[in-house]
Specification:
Two copies of one chain form a homodimer. Chain A is of the alpha/beta class. Chain A is about 35% helix and about 15% strand. The first copy, chain A, has helices at about 5-15, 45-60, 65-70, 75-80, 100-110, 130-135, 150-155, 180-185, 205-210, 280-290, 295-315, 340-350, 375-390, 395-400; strands spanning about 25, 30-35, 40-45, 95, 120-125, 140-145, 160-165, 190-195, 215, 230-235, 335-340, 355, 355-360, 365. In chain A, the strands form four sheets. Chain A has a seven-stranded mixed beta sheet with strand order 4-10-9-8-7-5-6, with helices on both faces. A three-stranded antiparallel beta sheet of chain A has the order 11-14-13. In chain A, strand 5, helix 6 and strand 6 (about 140-145) form a beta-alpha-beta unit. In chain A, helix 1 runs antiparallel to helix 13 and helix 4 (about 75-80) packs parallel to helix 10 (about 280-290). The radius of gyration of chain A is 22 Å and the shape is globular. The relative contact order of chain A is 0.16.
Chain lengths: ~400, ~400
Amino acid sequence: MSAPTREEALALDAADPLRGFRERFTLPKDVLYLDGNSLGALPAHTPERLRRMVEEEWGNGLIRSWNEAGWYDLPRGLGDRIAPLVGSAPGQIVVCDSTSVNLFKVLTAALRLRPGRSTLVSELGSFPTDLYLTEGVAPAWRLLLGRDGDTLDELLDADTAVVLLSHVDYRTGRLQDMAAVTAKVQASGALMVWDLCHSVGALPVELDACGADFAVGCGYKYLNGGPGAPAFLYAAARHHDAARQPLTGWFGHAEPFAMSPEYAPAAGIGRFLTGTPPLLSFAGLDAALDVWASVDMALVRAKSLSLTSFFLRATDALGLPTVTPRVDSERGSQVSLQHESAYAVVQALIARGVIGDFRERDVMRFGFTPLYVSHADVLDAAEALRDVLESKSYLDPRFTQRGAVT
Amino acid sequence: MSAPTREEALALDAADPLRGFRERFTLPKDVLYLDGNSLGALPAHTPERLRRMVEEEWGNGLIRSWNEAGWYDLPRGLGDRIAPLVGSAPGQIVVCDSTSVNLFKVLTAALRLRPGRSTLVSELGSFPTDLYLTEGVAPAWRLLLGRDGDTLDELLDADTAVVLLSHVDYRTGRLQDMAAVTAKVQASGALMVWDLCHSVGALPVELDACGADFAVGCGYKYLNGGPGAPAFLYAAARHHDAARQPLTGWFGHAEPFAMSPEYAPAAGIGRFLTGTPPLLSFAGLDAALDVWASVDMALVRAKSLSLTSFFLRATDALGLPTVTPRVDSERGSQVSLQHESAYAVVQALIARGVIGDFRERDVMRFGFTPLYVSHADVLDAAEALRDVLESKSYLDPRFTQRGAVT
């Protein structure tokens, strides 16, 4: 394909039905931000929401705000606001804890729902916390898809209890066929757990329609809920009565304020709650969901594919290998290019205000968030990348030395 | 003892070395707040700290703030700021998750450190989440101190792996002798886990000096970290190398950004971390700890005992039974009075701006936070309580009808 032109970028942006969303975010002027898949940008009205929670709800309302400001309802209420973004009926999602903690809860609950089976299947290339948690949950056997070249079909058998996969891979951006994989896993008698961290807010997700059993997802990437925003957890309603998760804290109790000495799980999705929620962080996610309330996910997907394919075309001439699928239906909302000095190139780009990120071992990862990234941005980023590579400015020791956190 | 007078209250307040701290909090003018043991008040500079994290660190810094604003160091850094308040050397506390989740981590880690033993001892009157978590951790046996009248001495034997107790009871305000109990438990070969939710920030705690093994505590009560503020977790350094907690997320990994597929716990206290921390809530606790940096806990304890004994004297004539010890050395920083219509009386007081709380079944709980409560406040609260009881205004249906959340 031919390299895209500035005129083409501007024409696409002029016709973009989502272009109005850019002004609902506050982004620094000197930055071109392609890391919203790691930490989403600040919605413009979030500071006011935080001020209100801190000064009015906490400062003036004090303990009364648990009732009067609706704090007590936030874990379920924010879950129901996320539900339409992931194709879930109400009452199947709670916002709580971190993705890691929620993985522990749903994996343990899922294993307990398959008592005669002892194998958990995960994927070698998963985001590491998924792998670590499958170690920690400690079923009798853990198989890693991708370790020995086996396909999922070859790994599934009558002993498989649970399969955990990422809907979109954090590193490559590869998108799984949720419907087909879920059906295949369930046909083997196992339960399917999806990690939605890199798909929620990036593309339409259809948990109910695909018949997913459980899912977890992240509040601080495409959803723009703020640094370390609370995560969420989905459990299909058909599992609620039988599901038992191990982190049996008082917020998941049927009557938290009865102060009964025995644990009795709440009816429905509430039984997946554990402790008191970190409400200032909840306010950040609450504000972000105001933006999502008026977003059409089909438009997000269309623009996302337009942005990522535009970037692939714009960087084609650089001759860099990519681990990201070029076929639209297999790609999330990021493009990962490879370079032997990937770390230094990313640092050199950041120094110019073009923020993507590095992932081991040789991946330069660029995330395209349709609500606040334009095709003109994509072209600017591609040109900056070409400049850095051609000028070899990335060889500067400022960029090659590895920091403590990358 | 004779009823205290207004003159006595004013004289005590005039001589109070902590009186200057009141202006470091923002409290509504029409409220007398005696529920800081449930949700602490708003430090006056917290809104600015939140604004800075939201607008500058998140909005402008974006992903760069993990390094440049020190986000990555906050779980350990805030832990080290809490350390002097609980008598811990640096490097033994992390701030993370909720108290419930942290209880799961330390109880499981403690049980794994005593593999030949299978009994966990908890206390029937504990805050329920402690009981529910000891159910969830599921050792072979769980004994409940207080169920059959047995003393701790009678329950401890060669099969006891772990004992979990509250330093100060949430309902009665009874303070345990941490040194004596820890020594007794450890003499039996078991490990001692302390729940500090109602003692941290209320009185001096000496974890290291008492030889405690593990502890958890709350950020949103006496510490004033904000609604649902992150909790903390203490593990004595001698246990770090051998301790294995089950929530093995990427933040507790030795090299979180190496993206290694195998879990390897971080050296030291960092292995107790799990997922990405909810940073807006961390900012609230960070701001609160600025206040604590200049607080002398011995002065806090002296004023706390002065306030609670003053309240006991001021309410003596009402003839209400109390579950709170009258002996100073056995009392935390609250007074719990009993009344058959406790719920309604508390509601009637709240309607007058005197905020305490109700706890099942008949307890009116009044918390005295030495940084922002005065002896004059105590007298005002006692007079309001007398008015409500004598006028029987609490019999109004507005007050007797139970709300969804109490």
